[in-house]
Amino acid sequence: MSVLKVNEMFETIQGEGFYTGLPAIFIRLQGCPVGCPWCDTKHTWTLDPAFQTDTQQVLAKTSDSEQYFSADEHKLLSLFEQQQYHARHVVITGGEPAMYDLIPLTSLLIDKGYCVQIETSGTFEIQAHPDTWVTLSPKVDMKGGYDVLDQPLKLANEIKHPVAMQKHIDELDTLLARPVTNPEAMVYLQPISQQRRATELAVNTCINRNWRLSLQTHKFIGID
Ligand code: SF4
Q: Where does S-adenosyl-L-methionine bind (predicted)?
């Protein structure tokens, strides 16, 4: 059993990377010390107990806030039924979900027939069922001072790199050159915040390198 702090849980369509377009239950965990300046989930950074509240209040949230509830894997699974979710794909995101021991949750969900995906910055070792799909969105040289570790690079099924300028491509090249990096991992470039120059750079680089483009499609259609 493992207690997780949950900032949000909702059903939507996965908007990014390999599983784009697939209905999914998102579990957004609270807490992240990485400090990306362009982070669009800054409300998940704090782990202040003052923001702990009850489950229903968190599930009813209509805007971003630091409020979270605590639950183990069995409670989360029972909430899937209570919320009448339909999706068979679960995305565990954050914040930085690899700060938590995700073995109990991922094992229970996989045992119940769900496909499970974790989205991580690669700055913490991943503790999850071996069949968990690992989406590594590596965060290099961020304010928090964390390094991208070997273990997430080894486990990555896809490496989805946020880009705005050439130095981000160079960082990715350095990560891909590390001997531990999974050579089978699919490589995606994702323009930061849909900026025009970032998008042009990502498109041109994907064409030149035969990499894939990931767009935050949920933002284009105005859903979470
Ligand atoms: S790792 Fe993710 S949640 Fe943490 S600061 Fe960076 S973008 Fe935000």
A: 38-40, 95, 137-139
